[in-house]
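Researcher: Good morning. I'm working through a list of sequences from a screen, and I'd like to move beyond sequence-only analysis. For each chain I'm collecting a predicted structure so we can compare shapes side by side. This is the next one on the list. No need for commentary yet; just the structure.
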Amino acid sequence: MSAHPEKLSFSEELLLLSLDDEQGKPVAYDCNVLSLALAGAVLFELMLLGKIVIQDE
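Model: Good morning. Structure tokens for this chain:
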């Protein structure tokens, strides 16, 4: 194990938080909720990196 482990992305952290510690399965009863949350997390990360821009119409 390295002294400085790689930082997890926001979506990776969200996915790990959504998993049951014992079974390793998503805790959410509705998998659509997790899918939408992860999609939002990816968009958020892209926005922070400056890869996408939100524009007003």
